[in-house]
Write a structure and sequence with these properties.
CATH superfamily of the largest domain: Nucleoside Triphosphate Pyrophosphohydrolase
Helix content: 10-25%
Shape: globular
Structural class: alpha+beta
Amino acid sequence: MLNFRPEDGRKRKDRRLPDAWAKTKNKKGNGRDEQSLLFLVQGHIFARDGGSTMIQDIAPARLDNAFRDAAAEASDTLVSFENGKILAAYDPEAERLRFPCVGECGDAGEAVYLFSVSGRRFFLAEGEVSLRKRDGDMPRPAAAESQPPLSAVVPAASDSQLPRPAEGPAASESRPPRAAEASSSPAPFTRFSLQELRALKLRENTEIFAAYTAYHLWNWYRTSRFCGACGSPTAYDHTERAKVCPACGNRIYPRINPAVIVGVTRGDSLLITRYREGFRHNALVAGFAEIGETLEETVQREVMEEVGLKVRNIRYYKSQPWGIASDLLAGFFCEVDGDDTIRMDPHELKYAEWVPRKEIVLQPSDYSLTNEMMKLFRDGGWPSGEERGTAPDRRDSDQLCSAV
């Protein structure tokens, strides 16, 4: 495969695909610089955005999800959930989301280390969080006032000694001021659902990705307080991210649900769906992997169950962590095989239609893999079966170019 690293512009070729090539060009989009990736596979040119679009695209920041048995300090970020809502402050002028520091909060019970983002450590508050008040407001302490946005922090080292964000006046002098920082009163903290966070206009994805990832772990900690084997209360393991039952020794690890997102094509049209309940905007066929099947078999089964179609030429595109549902999503494109009459399952969907490429309506935000796949096909980045030629079987997935 051809692997492209946007941060250093280098490229590597795999011998299985000798005619593949890639180059980048800068373009402006959504108020920020992005890179467009062009590559050639089997004589066909593809175009794919390589900029920060999906929720996990936070470069130059970097998530470090390695487990650490660490104690929280005053400058660390504290994540607090209550009935599924996260405590945060949103500044609409700066288009920035902020979470409280440990030093801003009163007694929050035991704080559990979650992960770090470019050296900034995130902890989960197990108890109720009370913010320290001053003059009737919820101020930021001096240390928190000087913290740069997450993506502005130097990427973390790989060892256990994580660097801390700079504090004090020198930190604010070392970076350009933001317009909203001139405001005399910081944005107040309140509770947001993850759906509400998704609707906010943000300058970068770092904070919302941290929120989704923290929610994934919070939900697992919440539902693994008792052993599923004997019912005894579980305890934290101090060597890895796991809950352990002291009574029977059962170990519980974070739950990750594998699921597929499927772009079914028919010539110059894409199969667009809308769910019966929940998310109201355009989507693609999607579903969870079942026991004993491959992801390619999941694609075939879900398409048949939801819209009654057979598919061929199943080709892997890209994956995405989706913490709000504890999912790991794998995106595939495929072509309808034979009869293209849609037989929609009304219990799963309320809409399923073939939509011409130029008429595809995207979701309101760029966060999801589904939206990126719809955008890719709409803009001609992923060719139809006629454009790319018909492949004999789904071994095409071994001949894809993937950007990392």
